[in-house]
Amino acid sequence: MAGCCCNEHEIASRGLQARQKRMLWLVLTINAVMFVTEFTAGLIAGSTALLADSLDMLGDTMVYSLSLLVLARSPRWKALSAGVKGTIMLGFGGLVLIEAAYKAYAGSAPVSVAMMSVGAVALVANIACLILLTRHREDDVNMRSAWICSRNDLFANSGVIIAGALVWATASVWPDVLVGSAIAVLFVSSGWGVLRDARARYRQAGQLRPDSSTA
């Protein structure tokens, strides 16, 4: 009976990993396409908020790639992957803050119509990703960190649309700068949260190892 139970557990685990893999490949593709779209639009429109959101898409593409690599790995590997994701989020947050500071000093108002239209497309894409990830967010720390990244995207996309509307109404650079900065702060805050969670899970996984008492 014990062997049968172990066999059933292994089959269930492989089935879960297969479902996670299909879902991660799908959201990875969506984010990669949207990164290229938003980055190009951000450069053409001169929008810090769009560029910030595109970097978020690039970060998510890297995040989902890491998640795929550690699907069949141990809890410690998954915790390490989550830690890398947190570091990526912190790094992109810092880059966006630098860009926002430069734009505030020497920038001009971006193309508001491009901000709103591309931001709306990105919002729809990320809603689809969040729906796909939600059913797996409690599977493990690896999947939860991926879900957090996708959830943050909704705030970022909504901010881009609002900034575009305010730029259109005021012809000012400041809505773009402020929203871009807010997205960056969100990256930094979430990155610290993911790093704390990953550290705790890594230590917990070490304590659960069979040889932890002799390590």
TrEMBL record:
Gene Ontology molecular-function annotations: zinc ion transmembrane transporter activity
Pfam families xref list: Cation_efflux
Subcellular location: Membrane
Chain ranges passing through the membrane: 23-45, 57-74, 86-105, 111-133, 154-171, 177-195
Domain of life, source organism: Bacteria
Record domain Cation efflux protein transmembrane: where: 24-198
GO cellular component term, pick one: plasma membrane
Membrane topology of this protein: Multi-pass membrane protein
Major subcellular site: membrane
Keyword annotations of the record: Ion transport, Membrane, Transmembrane, Transmembrane helix, Transport, Zinc, Zinc transport
UniProt protein name: Cation diffusion facilitator family transporter
The organism of origin for this protein: Salinisphaera japonica YTM-1
Source taxonomy: Bacteria, Pseudomonadati, Pseudomonadota, Gammaproteobacteria, Salinisphaerales
